[in-house]
Design brief:
With about 525 residues, this protein is of the alpha/beta class. The protein contains 22 helices and 20 strands. The protein folds into three domains: about 170 residues, Rossmann fold (3-Layer(aba) Sandwich), CATH 3.40.50.970; about 130 residues, 3-Layer(aba) Sandwich (Rossmann fold); about 180 residues, Thiamin diphosphate (ThDP)-binding fold, Pyr/PP domains (Rossmann fold, 3-Layer(aba) Sandwich).
Length: about 525
């Protein structure tokens, strides 16, 4: 690791210079007093884009979306333990998605930590559950090398969360050193015996090739489609996927359903399952009297490659092992049609199938409304689809920010339930401030609709008025048009499918962000 030493450079400046040298050029930030030397270094060191968030959960979620679309880590800048704590929910989602992020968390100077100041906390303890790597820089001279290791960790397959704690005295003390990039380890490749076992399992019917992280690029789906054509196996993906390339001209994969009864029914016909980048299917929650494992009891399940392996190499080896020479079956383009009628899931799905732009990025946090969207949009124009892999709500708007920053030439379509959007509504302000090309559709059913169904699923009995009131968002009504406009985002309210289609088209023509409140 090459290091440059500048006697007048402080630790904060060496940190910024090292991050840039390691390819990290975007920072999603919500800084405080302890991070001011890092903020000042941004003026002295060119090359780092700093995107301000009004809530730390927006910064961490944006870093997640940035990794998914850019394929490289951004950093976050967070204020002490409470600031990190505010970002934990979306760091949980990022960890489950396999997203690489470098968190820079400010800390009190050593002399101040001894005083147990009001903001003193156990930052390592807060960071560990959502981080694969946690480290505290002890001296200004060590900051650069520590930062290089953090970036190396973030880039380690499939992508990892690294948290670097920066005490303010190491940030302001001179003697910083700039470190060069460290190469992450190569992801493992499955051995040929395992590949041959997988090939044997996929032949002969009643077999499933289940795809997950890293297996859902356009190229890997093409390979999987050829394997399916050669063996007769079915193709499916996990319920939640960090990134899936789909649409006309690409191989279609259905998802394992979220509802547990539907998932058990769909998976019951498969006696043999090969996993590539995926886990064996399990339920999202435990339900009384229902199994948590969704596959049939006698199913033979073979993990060929997990998310940390070289998934592309694994699929390529499997293709060769089965002798997959035939072309894959791909989607045709869905024909244009007039879309009308009330705003219900099927009608909205038809609108999306028609209006998703070529090269669009769909960020899906539509929860209950969105369960009809996926099969209806197989034949939409080629696009990328991002799901919430960790289940903690409030992911969609921040991930849309990060995706738009990573891909300024592509339109982002964020499909968000109104309850979910309220967790990180501050992301709208960042969209406006940065002029991001995001169309946000808020499905305003004015309730936590998914939880009404969960009351039945867990056997909690018929809900009474107090229980239903806990799941309602209509006392008072949320006015999304006013909220969006107050944060600088143009907004409109629609009440039928034709109006939704027109509003999406208007958003496509806009230079900056727009919001559509779809009243259901």
């Amino acid at each position: 690791m090459v290091q440059d030493r500048h006697p007048e450079m402080n630790g904060a400046e060496s940190l910024v210079r090292t991050l840039i040298a390691c390819g990290v050029d975007t920072c999603f930030s919500n800084p405080g007093t302890s991070e001011m030397h890092f903020v000042a270094a941004l003026d002295r060191v060119p090359g780092m884009r700093s995107v301000l968030a009004l809530f730390e959960g927006v910064a961490t979620g944006a870093a997640d979306g940035y990794w998914r679309m850019a394929g490289k880590p951004a950093c976050t800048l967070l204020h002490l333990g409470p600031g990190l704590g505010n970002g934990l929910s979306n760091l949980h989602n990022a960890k489950k998605a396999g997203s690489g992020i470098v968190n820079i968390v400010g800390e009190h100077a050593e002399t101040h930590r001894q005083l147990d100041a009001p903001l003193m906390s156990d930052i390592e303890g807060i960071a560990r559950p959502v981080s694969q790597w946690v480290h505290r820089s002890e001296t200004a001279a060590a900051v650069g090398a520590d930062a290089a290791r953090a970036v190396q960790t973030a880039r380690t397959a499939p992508g990892q969360v690294a948290t670097l704690i920066l005490p303010s005295d190491t940030a302001w003390t001179t003697g910083g050193r700039v470190a060069g990039p460290l190469t992450p380890p190569e992801p493992p490749v499955p051995d040929q015996d395992l590949v041959d076992q997988a090939a044997a399992l996929l032949r002969g019917g009643e077999a499933l090739l289940l795809l997950g992280s890293g297996a859902l690029t356009a190229e890997n789906l093409e390979t999987a489609g050829r394997i399916a054509a050669a063996t007769g196996c079915a193709l499916m993906s996990e319920w939640s996927n960090a990134r899936l390339e789909r649409g006309a001209g690409r191989v279609a994969v259905d998802k394992v359903p979220y509802p547990i009864d539907a998932a058990i029914e769909v998976l019951a016909r498969f006696r043999r399952i090969v996993l590539v980048g995926a886990r064996a299917p399990i339920g999202f929650f435990a339900y009384p009297g229902k199994p948590a494992v969704l596959t049939r009891p006698d199913a033979e399940i073979l993990p060929l490659a997990d998310a940390s392996d070289d998934v592309t190499a694994a699929l390529g080896a499997l293709r060769d092992a089965v002798g997959a020479h035939a072309s894959a079956v791909v989607n045709g383009l869905r024909p244009e049609a007039d879309v009308s009628g009330p705003l219900e899931p099927g009608g909205i799905a038809a609108v999306l199938a028609q209006e998703i732009p070529e090269g669009g990025i769909v960020v899906d946090e539509s929860i209950t409304t969105g369960r009809a969207f996926f099969p209806a949009t197989h034949g939409a124009r080629p696009h990328t689809w991002l799901n919430n892999c960790g289940g903690s709500i409030g992911y969609g708007l921040p991930v849309a920010v990060g995706a738009a920053v990573a891909c300024p030439g592509r339109k982002v379509l964020a499909l968000i339930g109104d309850g979910s959007a309220m967790y990180t509504v501050q992301a709208l302000w960042t969209m406006a401030r940065e002029g991001l090309s995001v169309i946000t559709v808020i499905f305003a059913n004015r309730s936590y609709r998914i939880l009404r169904g969960e009351l039945d699923n867990v056997g909690a009995g018929n809900p009474g008025p107090r229980a239903l009131d806990m799941l309602s968002l209509d006392r008072p009504h949320l006015d999304w048009v006013q909220m969006a406009r107050s944060m600088g985002v143009e907004a409109a309210r629609v009440e039928d499918c034709a109006a939704l289609a027109r509003a999406i088209r208007n958003g496509m023509d806009a230079d900056g962000p727009t919001l559509i409140e779809a009243v259901m």
